[in-house]
Amino acid sequence: MGNNAALLKFLSVNGRATIQELAQKFGMKPEEVSKDLEELSSREGLTFAPEINFENLWLMEFAKQARQQTKRGIIGEASEIVANAGFSEYLLKLDFESMPKYEELTNATSTKERYVQFLATTKSKKAYGYVLARTYDDIGYIVRGIQSKLSKYRFTISVIRIFPEWGFFPIDVDMINSFKLFDSYKNLLVGLTKKGRAPFSEIGAEYGQGSTQMLYAYDRLIRTRVLKWVTYYIANISQYSIAFLELTLKGSDFEKEKEKWYLKMAKSEMCPYVYMARMLSPLGYFGILAFQDKEELKKEIDALSKFKYAESNVEMLDKVLVGKIGLRYFDMRYSSAYAYLESKGLVERQSLPSPGAGYI
User: Fold this and answer.
1) Model pTM greater than 0.90?
2) Cross-strand partners of 289
3) CA–CA separation, 93 and 26 (whole Å)
């Protein structure tokens, strides 16, 4: 990939960088950058979108609801407001004796609330999903719906709370419209989801708002870390071999193996682990791997099997039924893996800039 890999890494955390900014960054002519980006977008199916930090979203939702209350109302209803602010992230696992049809699975996980933002089958009668839910009642509702709609099949179902380390699943417009945010914030996120590199003036015009309002909303969401950055995902995934990983820890001595594992990721031109999240039950990690070379994927799976203090289970992707995988050439210096390596003195400390606003 060469220069293209560097360009894609930069765009992974600066998706709104202008052509002029990219040209200055890479010492190229603007027309050259424009041509490279156009060719990459066509070949890879690059789609620019916001990466949302759900750990912080509840603060902004709480702020809106609290502002609509009197002081006495806030005190009296604070616990209820907090309970219904924000989303938790979950891994949905379905393990079948005989596999339902694709349309049956899609229908079984579909709700008007759009809880299941991603769903994919594997080549071994399993399915994995990414779920956003506000309460445990929501989870119960999802599970009961799946059990009812797939009642003729024998299967086990698990819903596991996950804590993302890096990577993302692109969120659809219907879900964003359900956020309890002030209109300017919500409109900006919807606009960035539809067209991530559009000028703020264009995004605002759709909602009768100006570029200044959109710029303020962008700055506010960036500073509160609700919006990590505008990034991209590769829509044309057919050229990649993709697998799901469940890594279960077998004792407290995994740290040394983890250091080597993370160092290998940090040094990769493209980190093959495009998504990684911690799980508490069972204690371990859930990840998504993507390789263009099938043999390299086999090597990585073999390396995982040799961990002494962790047990790996790898399932090959069959078909994506709902949503998209956030496959990208991520700049790992912005990941928690790199921060972990920094804390151990294993990599050079970085002072990284925040993403710019880009097109206004």
Assistant:
1) yes
2) 243, 273
3) 43
